[in-house]
Amino acid sequence: MKLRAAKSRTADLFAAAPERRPDAVPAPAPAPAHAHAPASPVRPALAAPVPPPREQLGALRPKQLWYAAVFPEMTPEASAALQELCRHAHAFTSFVSLEPPNALLLEIKGSVKLFGSLQQLHADIDECWRLLTRTASSAIAPSTLAALWLARAGDPSLIEDTELLPSRLAKVPIACTAWPAEQLQTLRAMGVTSLGELMRLPRAGIARRLNPAVVADLDIALARQPAPRRAFVQRERFRERCDFETEIENVAYLEKALEPLIERCARFLRRRQAGIQGLRLKLRHREGPATRVQLGLASITSERRRLNDVLCQKLSRLNLRAPVRGMELISGSLRSLSASSLDVFAGLTGAGSRDSAPQLVERLRARLGEEAVYGVCLIPEHRPEAAWRRVQELCLTAGVKAEQRVDQQLPRPVWLLSEPLPLPKPEILQGPERIESGWWDGKGVARDYYIARQPQGARLWVFQERRSKRWYVHGVFA
Amino acid sequence: MCCVVAKTWMPRDAPLLAEVLADARVWKLKDASAAPARPVWSTGKSSLDARLPGGGWPTASLIEVLLDDTGLGEVQLFLPALVACQRGSGGDTRWLVWIAPPHEPYAPALAQSGIELKRLLIVRPPTATEALWAAEQALSSGVCAAVLLWLKGTDDRWLRRLKLAAEAGGSLGVLFRPERHRFESSPANLRIVMSRGEPCARLDLLKVQGGRPGPVDLGDS
User: Fold this and answer.
1) What secondary structure letter does DSSP report for A448?
2) Are B48 and B21 members of one domain?
3) Where are the domains of chain A?
4) What is the full DSSP assignment across chain B?
5) Separation between Cα atoms, residue B32 and residue A477, nearest integer Å
6) Which three-class secondary structure string do you get for A47-111?
7) How many CB atoms lie within 10 A of CB A409?
8) 3-class SS at A386?
9) CB of A344 within 8 Å of any CB in chain B?
10) Closest CA of chain B from A236, distance in Å
11) Does the beta-carbon distance from B112 to A399 stay under 8 Å?
12) Which of residues 145-174 of A touch B (CB under 8 A)?
């Protein structure tokens, strides 16, 4: 009942002009303003500066043109296969977007000229799927959703004009939109089976009864709303194996054999202007599982010398449990090389500089372990043991300026003992400094700190526990 | 060295003094003290500065500090130099590396003395050999302003490598060792013995290239 009433009110917001009713033949675009303006005797003064009417703006060529391909036999699990298809699609355009589970969207506006014509491009892409033995239905439209829906409907349309979208989409069944099932159910209950019927309904009513997302999707499909998409970026990595004719037992030989692999890896990275921060090496033996060497780099790099350095360092620590028959070098995921990771000027500051700080840190870490190399930082805390912390993420970029700290604190020792040690009452030189804090986390302290001195010896940082009156040493002034 | 000089006074078959001086093994005290080729970093103690050639810790060299307990103010002696060499001449702060310190370096104390903590690296190697390797790497890398290394013991060959690395990388290398190594030969440019004393620790210069060995009174600063 309600539906009928809504229909009769014809508050149709999707059809901007009466002649754009879905079943009607689209009206030809109005002639440009300057063409008919001089001929018009009524308002000659407005001839030159008049802006093109609104209707005409819509008739301008669209900025984007989307090709959608739907692969009906592809299952939702076959995401790898879809990515494989993406890789082929990159032959036609640089912007390919995945539409899981089984569709691809290609932005082809920029490629039309290269392939001669739109028809040619369309045929070429379709031919590509045929050669890959994939059945695909495709469509071209000025908006992403329109292309996708038309492709799902199996309508091999080729629409260049935004004006044509409402009429062409009208025949598309609503099932092609892939909206949630309950919404489709509601629409069917309302007697709506195609998009044309949906577009005739009042906009506010759809948003209220179904979902505002439905209205938004229709706007996107009709190219009235932009719909930014994420481009598919190939997740590449360097992976290459090499097998030896004879088994290698000596690590030094392995290093030699590794050199060409690293050289190729560096070239691979250079060509992509990318760097890596991790690397894996698999050493295969005649039997048993392969030995895996994992290494991390302190910063993103593509330098052959640095990769070689770290790998050799790791290899020299390795105990080969069996002779090696082959190996495989696998890079971590590629990262873009930023200007800060190309540490060009770091070498110019010191006289005999050969390394950069990241190189030194990763060489130390490769041999001694990640935890053995760390930095320290301050924490604003009164409790001495909580006023500092180890940091594993070092600030390795160049350009750290030393800043002068002016906060005058009471003296602190260079060494802090990991645990306070009890001692008899020492000879006090200076103090006390009362530190009473930390009641909130159960590790509260109430101490009086003094600087004390051992007979004939070291200066210590001691404290007296205020409750127990016992003495402890907590630091050493070295 | 002394015996070579003594030989020149032998009446017969004695080489000319010029020949002796041309021998690379003979090290000329006067020239070395007259021209301090390298910049130096002040120790913060005027009495010690006065005794060191050039008036401070030499850069690009290995300094050996022999002491049995900690807490004698041994790190304090180097803190002003560490701050100065970390800032360096260029705009960028250089790295400080502390290898195998006996306790946790306490960040608030270091920040108080002016060390930039973002450029401080602490390395805890599992063995002494690894510590020496790490020190050599850090010294020769050229990105470190100073490398401090605490060791229980080491041999002469490793010290020689450390010294060469320090010279190659232009860093200040400081090695802390127990006092029992006092009578072993060492290629370090500067050797210091620190021991307990009243009212403050005693400091003895064992070997000073371009200066005179002997005890130093630290009390006046």
Assistant:
1) E
2) no
3) 1-234, 239-349, 415-477
4) -HHHHHHTT-SSSPPPHHHHHHSTT---HHHHHH---S-EE--S-HHHHHHSTTSSEESSEEEEEE-SSS-SSTTTTTHHHHHHHHH-SSSSPPEEEEES-SSEE-HHHHHHHT--GGGEEEE--SSHHHHHHHHHHHHHHS-EEEEEEE-S---HHHHHHHHHHHHHHT-EEEEEE-GGGGGS----SEEEEEE--SSS-EEEEEEETTS--EEE--TT-
5) 35
6) CCCCCCCHHHHHHCCCCCCEEEEECCCCCCCCHHHHHHHHHHHCCCCCCEEEECCCEEEEECHHH
7) 11
8) helix
9) no
10) 33
11) no
12) none
Whether residue B74 lies inside any domain: the answer is yes
**Residues 122-141 in B contacting A (C-alpha not used; CB under 8 Å):** 122-126, 130, 133-134, 137-138, 140-141
Question: Tens place of pLDDT for every residue, chain A, 478 residues?
Answer: 444 444 444 344 444 433 333 333 333 444 443 434 344 444 444 444 444 444 444 444 557 889 999 988 888 777 788 888 888 888 888 888 888 788 899 999 888 889 988 899 999 999 998 888 888 899 999 989 999 999 998 888 888 888 888 888 888 998 888 888 888 898 899 888 889 988 888 888 888 888 888 888 888 888 888 888 888 877 778 888 888 888 888 888 888 888 999 999 988 888 877 888 888 899 999 888 888 888 877 777 888 888 888 888 888 878 888 889 999 999 888 877 765 545 554 444 443 345 678 888 888 888 888 888 999 988 888 888 888 889 888 877 766 665 655 565 778 888 988 888 898 888 888 878 888 888 888 888 889 999 888 876 788 889 998 888 899 989 888 8
Whether A331 and A267 have beta carbons less than 8 Å apart is answered as no
Architecture of domain A239-349: 2-Layer Sandwich (3.30)
ipTM of the complex, rounded to two decimals: 0.79
Domain count, chain B: 2
CA distance A461 to chain B (A): 10
Q: Tokens at residue A251, please?
A: 């690590």
Gyration radius of chain B over CA positions: 18
Query: Is B110 close to A399, i.e. CB distance below 8 A?
Result: no
In B, residues 49-88, which contact A (CB 8 Å cutoff)?
69-76, 79, 86-88
Q: The domain spanning residue B62 has which CATH number?
A: 3.40.50.300
B73 plus B179 within the same structural domain: yes
Residue ranges of A 399-418 with Cβ closer than 8 A to chain B: 399-405, 409, 411-418
A211 CB burial (10 A radius; 0-12, 13-18, 19+): middle
Are the CB atoms for A264 and A271 separated by under 8 Å? no
